[in-house]
Amino acid sequence: MADIGAVAGGDDQLGHRVFEYWLAVPANRIGEAVYSPSELKTIQEVISLSVFAVFTVFYFGEKLTLNHGIGFGMIALGAFFIFKGPIK
Hints:
Radius of gyration: 18 Å
Number of strands: 0
Mean pLDDT: 83
Order of helices and strands: HHH
Structural class: mainly alpha
Low-confidence stretches: none
Number of helices: 3
Strand content: under 5%
Number of domains: 2
């Protein structure tokens, strides 16, 4: 017999995903008027990684190291090239 808690937890996650999708679709349609899909994805990833970095520092007490700085620098460089446009 299935664990009721696991089933209820799955339903909760599905509800969260539907709500997130409900917000994301109009946001992408509005954003597409200004940004290309690759620029929208880049913005999403930069925000996600920045929030995650802050979360790990304050919640888990992880210390940011030089490796983190180099990694974030490379992400910033990648974002620069996405927004700069084609290299001529």
